[in-house]
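User: Some background: our group keeps a shared notebook of sequences we're curious about, and every so often someone picks one and asks for a predicted structure to add to the entry. Today it's my turn. The entry only has the sequence so far, pasted here. Could you supply the structure so I can complete it?
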Amino acid sequence: MGKEHWFFGCSSEQDIKKRFHELMLIHHPDRGGNLQTCQEIVGEYHEALKSCQFTGAEWNGTRQTYRYNETLEREFEDAMQWAMTLSFCKIELIGTWLWVTGKTQPIKDVLKEKGFHWASRKSAWCYHVGLWRRNKKRFELEDLRAKYGYEVLKEQEEQRAMSY
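Assistant: Of course. Here's the predicted structure to add to the notebook entry:
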């Protein structure tokens, strides 16, 4: 059997990342997938990102572009995979930030250890690697979704009462 080409047809960083998220939802071992297949996808993911032509990490007033950085990508990927294992939480990718909402009070110390920061005005935990600049404007999560685009990676499960 020949090698799979998991990212065939992906021509941009956004296409590659979207396909990666879709593949992880199917093939991640925590979701019933195969560890070897998952590792193969992760390896090909990094190779696909390296092959993209990025224009740099600059802000021109209306658009920000990025360079691929394998270390930062792996850090973010690890945080995202860990967050996907959380119960009773909603996980969203908004722009280049990972957001966690839901019943996070019992795990707040673990979230801090993993590098997440509490955004009190948004009542959500956020994760980001690399440089970022603080904005003086106060955005709600809905504003950020509209401005940067978003993808819900995991919906919040409902907690059911146990009956005996």
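Suggested note for the entry: The domain at 1-68 is CATH 1.10.287 (Helix Hairpins). The radius of gyration is 17 Å.
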